[in-house]
Amino acid sequence: MPIITLYDYWRSSASYRVRIALNIAGLDFESIPIDLSQAHHKSKEHVQRNPQTFVPVINIDGQMLTQSLTIIEYLNDTRSLNLFPKNAIDRAKVNALAHTIALDIHPICNLSVSSEAERISGEKNYKKKWIHQFMRPGLEAFEIQLKALPKSTYCFNENPTIADICLMPQIYNAKRWDIDISNFDRINLVVEECEKNLAFIKAHPDMLKPNQT
Known about the structure:
Blueprint: E1 4-8, H1 13-24, E2 29-33, H2 44-49, E3 57-60, E4 63-66, H3 68-79, H4 88-109, H5 111-121, H6 126-147, H7 162-176, H8 185-194, H9 198-203
Parallel strand pairs: 1-2
Antiparallel strand pairs: 1-3, 3-4
Helix pairs in contact: 1-3, 1-7, 4-6, 4-7, 5-6, 7-8
């Protein structure tokens, strides 16, 4: 079987999501680090992989794919992972949870946007203020959405879905930026469960963290 190659960055939320999905699928893959802090994502080689210069990029089944949610959907469809409910209404609700994080919180709080916000502000350490302004309210909305669903082991049912895959990298970011999540009861129950799941454990950034950051 051809080797699956994942071009990622250890601290990238989007890459973290794909690593979780690959682990759920039980797929072996080679991780090729693209150091965002050293602008390796802007190299000629990486631009050829992804004109947007983002990570992750995956080489799988003879195809080069980008965009974490698209990659996860491809893995779900080709490896029967059951990351999306079959029922259309339930699928929409789970996707809404995933998109709350991946399409609303994450883009505005990522490295390039928060760094540019700090540059424009001219204020030292403004990046943290910027991230706090958007990340906690976004997680508060996620908690309310979660409470509207029947209580379960994971976000939606007794197995991980795309919502859990998007949640855990965002929780990692929240902790990194000292955002208090202690009062998010439903979120914390899901986090406790995911932290016991080997697919999530193996995908954690600490498993890939280089000696020098």
